[in-house]
Amino acid sequence: MFLSMNWISDFVDLSGLDKTELIHQFSLSTAEVENDIFFKGSDISGIVVAEIKSVENHPDSKKLHLLKVDAGDGELTDVVCGAPNVRVGMKTAFAKVGAQIGDITIAPRKLAGYTSNGMCCGESELGISDDNSGIMEITDDIPCGTDLKSVYEIDDIVFEVDNKSLTNRPDLWGHYGIAREFAALAGRPLKPLETEDLSAYNSLPQVDLKIEDPLCYRYSCLQVENIKRSVSPVNMRIRLYYCGMRAINFLADLTNYLMLEMGQPMHAFDSRKVGMIRIKRFDKPFVFQTLDGVERNVDENTLMICNDDTPVAIAGIMGGLDSEIVADTTTLTLESATFDAASIRKSTVRLAHRTDASMRYEKSLDPELTVPAIARLLNLLKKYDEGATVVSALTDEYVYHFDKVELNFNKSFVDRYTGIEIDNETIVKTLQSLGFQVSLDGDNFDVTVPSWRATKDVTMNADIIEEITRIYGYDNFAVHTTRSPLYPVRMDEVKRNEEKIKEVLVKRYDLHELHSYVWAYYDELKVLGIAVEDNIKLANATNPNIETIRNSMIPTQLCQVKTNVGYAPEFGIFEIGRVVTGMTADNLCIEKKMLAVTLYSKTADVKALYFKLRDILATVADDIKHRALGFAEAQPTHDYEHPVNLNRVLLDGADIGVMGIVHHTVGKKIDKKASIVFAEIDMQAFADIDNASIVYEEPSKFPPMDYDISVVIPKGVLFADMAACWKDEGKGILKGAKVVDSYDTELFHSETIRFEFSSHERTLAMTEVQEIMDRIVRNLNAIHVNLR
Amino acid sequence: MDRIKALQEEFQEKLAQIVDLNALEKMRVDYLGKKGSITALLKGMKDLTNEEKKSFGAEVNKLKGFAAKKIEEKVEELRQAEVAREIASMPKFDITAPADLSRGSYHPITLVQRQCENIFKSMGFTVEDYPEVVTDYECFESVNIPKHHPARDMQDTYYLTNGQLLKSQTSAAQNAILRKYGKNLKENGVPIKAIFPGRCFRNEATDASHENTFFQMEGMMVDKDISISNLIFFMKTMLSEVFRRDVKVRLRPGFFPFVEPGFELDINCLICGGEGCASCKHSGWLELCPCGMIHPNVLREGGIDPDTYTGFAFGLGLTRLAMMEYKIKDIRDLNSGSLKALSQFTDDE
């Protein structure tokens, strides 16, 4: 919303104050002002009122005229002018030689052989309207030679307030409310609005009016006739233009002007079309043509202004074409009303039609405004068109009153909230300047909230704090730290694990962390031949590609792998993100936080890649929980899972996730030559496992002894099966066993296993180690693992 | 005597030809060993007179000393030659060749989030995790955004078919956190100090500066006598840590349903420091985060008496911070899954 400093100054004397600084303060105390402040008229000087005394056609040009104008210099000035509307006796704006218009300095200039000693100006050239049809026509009685700026408010400071920052302030949607804020900030009094005394018309007949729907809070109207004026006064037009509105005709301009001044939207009907005003909704949807000529589908929830049963306006949004003021209108009905804010807002959304009026109604306007708005409008009307006659009594139905808001608080409440000392006098003065009624008894405040703040904005004591502090100025606050006692804080286990996991994966295994979306990507998955599995859906997705919430992150990661094929011959990605795995009995989503890891390689064979992933998971478990992972063979449940080597991942016996190889039917669609493996770990399940502590073993002073055996292992025997053969052997001195070599022939699989013995008490004798090894070999023989 | 002289000459000739330590050792044994030729000279002295023995012996000993010294010198010479050879054999490497920096990477949000979390942890805040799928109550109702409140229009929320929704703001965690720590506050006087980073969702079209999925971080502190003054102090301190410089902050009134009073917080522009430049539209200020005193209704809904306790809350756009920190121009890069873009964030320190 654009605001004019001239207009504001109608209501508060800001003379002697730095306006730019005031606007800045307003931005810090009330509502956000956009950066650019416009100094209107500052680039214009030397423009005077002049009368055209003679007009001759230019001998060689169809467009140009040769004028003699009286610019108040005692002699006439020769001017060449191309405007079509020149005529003798017309007064216009004239830029004399030496005048400034923007970057141009007016100088004598030859135009088609004739010298022009100045320039007649159009309104758009002066920046006071967008009318560029001809030169400005001045109808006011002003002597020639008068500086235009001394009669018209061309000089102004205009600034723009971000509408979003006015959402909660219905009172700030007009200049008068803004002026109240400036008055409070400047510590100057706010002048009352000049209004017409409407009680003078009480004896005239009432308008036939009935509110038939509770969505209309108040409806006030008045009938006026004999309005002769059609063009608005120049200053009014300038203000409207500076504030972003086009002048239309006097009556339309006047209602707009009133809205920009008081924030109260008004409408004028042709009285012939609104003999019986009824405000109601209709049972059925219908088509209604608004005054902009558009036919709109109006549904049964939309409040309408009607003439008996004929709709004439969409309440609070826009009037109808059929009841508009037309050329032969003699009597008009002025409407000033208040409607339910939420209803207007919803109607606006349904109609997809937001207007300056609806924008204001949405904010919960003060119903107390309707009558003063009529009184003010009438005041302006009579000022600019003396013949205008009121022909009805003020007709006012007021059916919904907002509760009066009265608040009570103590100085200590203010102190506690602000943390600084603001004295009682300042509090009282501040609140009063904003229109609050305040009575102070000791340290106790009784405050009545003004009606324009009481529609939703100020309802409780905390709201008062804002009023006091924003005018006090946040820049003026002494700031200090809290006095709260200190206590240790504990990290959430999932969060702690998350940090560590990321570190291990990035720092040790060179994986890349990526982010993704929480929904399945239909289109991308289709390319990979992965069906989107049924899961909870978005109810209002605008894009069907993202409709279903994912139940696993692996398909997402496979899409990402596909995106990155070509980035490097081998890479690994991971993400800790969310999935929804099902619904509870109460129909709520079961959301899980998962770690997903996918490795891709063109160079490593699938076995090496698979074991790399296994080792990554094992390292994570060992680093964070100091526990070994277990695995259990699993059956595939998703179409991207290869049925072989698919394993549930176990930690301390609990199922924490899955790891496997990407099914070749999917894999080949990503990259024919690469291997891809994946794992998905449930972060909460992982976090739920207790951390085992590190058990320190003192280094032995005695030499250790290694004992290698090479064995031939039949198909189907796992390392875990062999480990069972030595689990209970060599108590205290067998420290570990590991595979140091392995090879395969077509006939058999062979491994060399190194057993590590050591003792804290003695140097081990070969004989005792040999005895243990003999038993182990016997155990191995029992499962058909034989020495090579 | 001639034999001594001849032997010395022979020794010198041979020594000159020696090029390695092994040969030198062999030569030492050949001349100076028990069976060496110099030692042998002494053995042949028995036929000489005492007088001759004396002078011959002295000459032989002289030769012996001479030979030992020469060998020692030769040892040193060969050692040095070997060092020189070793040095000469070491090729010179091109240290300016590009370094191999291939390694893993963090998502930039992780880095920025970690920085912020560390700052808050150092000030005694807990870090709270919260689901992404929440109820209407959590996201709106409990934080003073009742049904039909205009603030709900401002957020284009993704609703799910079961009536739940993808949280449109991290504030969805406020109620649960107030409830989680409220007991300890009321019974033991332990202030609630929590931050809750999380992913948020808005149903809107994406472009270079709009995403439907982005990260926020909210924080709050509740105790007796928490004031606006505390809030300003805290925001200034915290943001100075986040941006690693002394930032200026200013507060403007801002309307957010879950705070009263609510503020828009600006910091002096990071690029120009407040002088005014293109990136701050010549205002010198950058609108950074909403904050305010927690609305009494929010406290009450969280089971905390607003007449006894007050608190402040603030929100930080982690996605925006990451974009500022790394000068990322297109917000969509963050969720693009592209390693070309995202493998660059190897660490923050």
Through-space gap between termini of chain B: 81 Å
User: If you consult CATH, what is the topology of the largest domain in chain B?
Assistant: BirA Bifunctional Protein, domain 2
Uncertain runs of chain B with pLDDT below 50, 5 residues or more? none
Helical fraction of chain B equals: 40-55%
Percent of residues of chain A in beta strands? Answer: 25-35%
Specify the biggest β-sheet of chain B.
7 strands, mixed
Shape estimate of chain B? rod-shaped
Task: Give the C-alpha Rg of chain B.
Answer: 42 Å
Instruction: Sketch the topology of chain B as an H/E string, one letter per element.
Output: HHHHHEEHHEEHEEHEEEHEHH
For the record, the count of structural domains of chain A works out to: 6
Tell me the count of domains of chain B. Answer: 2
Name the structural class of chain A. alpha+beta
The strand count of chain A comes to: 37
Task: Give an overview of the whole structure.
The complex is a heterodimer of chains A (788) and B (349). By secondary structure, chain A is α+β, with helices and mostly antiparallel strands. Helices cover 27% and strands 28% of the residues of chain A. Chain A has 6 domains: 11-37 and 159-186, no CATH class; 44-154, Nucleic acid-binding proteins (OB fold (Dihydrolipoamide Acetyltransferase, E2P)); 198-398, Phenylalanyl-tRNA Synthetase, Chain B, domain 3, CATH 3.50.40; 406-476, 2-Layer Sandwich (Phenylalanyl-tRNA Synthetase, Chain B, domain 1); 493-688, BirA Bifunctional Protein, domain 2 (2-Layer Sandwich), CATH 3.30.930.10; 705-787, 2-Layer Sandwich (Alpha-Beta Plaits), CATH 3.30.70.380. Chain A has a 7-stranded mixed β-sheet, with helices on both faces. In chain A, strands 3, 4, 5, 6, 7 and 10 form a 6-stranded antiparallel β-sheet that branches. In chain A, a hairpin with a 2-residue loop joins strand 31 (647-651) and strand 32 (654-661). The mean pLDDT of chain A is 94. With 349 residues, chain B is of the alpha+beta class. Chain B folds into 2 domains: 2-89; 108-342, BirA Bifunctional Protein, domain 2 (2-Layer Sandwich). Helices cover 43% and strands 18% of the residues of chain B. Chain B has helices at 2-17, 21-32, 37-43, 50-89, 108-122, 136-139, 150-154, 174-188, 228-243, 296-301, 318-326, 339-342; strands at 126-127, 133-134, 158-159, 165-166, 192-201, 213-223, 249-253, 259-268, 285-294, 310-317. In chain B, the strands form 2 sheets. Chain B has a 7-stranded mixed β-sheet, with helices on both faces. In chain B, strands 2-4-3 form a 3-stranded antiparallel β-sheet. Chain B is rod-shaped, with a radius of gyration of 42 Å. At the A-B interface, helix 2, helix 8, helix 11, helix 13 and helix 14 of A face helix 5, strand 1, strand 3, strand 5 and strand 6 of B.
